[in-house]
Amino acid sequence: MQRPPTDREILQRIHDRSLDKFGRFDRNNPENQRSSKIYVPIDCDAIANDLGVDADIVFGRLYYHLDKKYGYTQDNGAKVHLFTMAISDDRHAVHFPMLSAVLAELQQSWFRFTVPLVISGIALAISVISLVCGGA
Q1: Hey, where are the domains in the chain?
Q2: At 95, which helix (H) or strand (E)?
Q3: How many Å from the N-terminal Cα to the C-terminal Cα in the chain?
């Protein structure tokens, strides 16, 4: 059984696929492919395919979990969504700057966990080698 992708893996895939679209947006160009600079439409099917999971897994994680976790309400009552069903004519869109911030935080947390683990593993290996070679 394949393990489900992590939040970091899902957001990284979305970020990699959407970065160019986000940067190319031009408000003055009438041929814009989307209605907002901040909200970038995504293709849940393509992202799920990249990750080797069903598209409903990606959609569900974004809509039911990540948006609830990272979305917020402003002082004036306006809701800011990480993932929204639709913005104007755009379907399934992510708030790209927020996604980038959340991804950076998840990557930093992963790094803070992984580096000490690797260092501990190396220290353990050196200790075992010392015991084996020192006893010979």
Answers
A1: 7-110
A2: strand 90-95
A3: 44
> Among 55, 40, 41, which Cα is nearest to 10's?
55
Full-model pTM: 0.81
Tokens of 63: 């809509």
**What pairing do the DSSP bridges indicate for beta strands 90-95 and 83-87?**
antiparallel
Task: Tell me the fold of 7-110.
Answer: Arc Repressor Mutant, subunit A (1.10.10)
φ/ψ (deg, to 5) at 134:
-70, -25
Per-residue pLDDT of the chain (136 residues), as tens digits, is 688 999 999 999 999 999 998 988 887 776 666 778 899 999 999 999 999 999 999 999 999 999 999 999 999 999 999 999 988 778 899 999 999 999 999 999 988 988 889 999 998 989 889 888 875 5
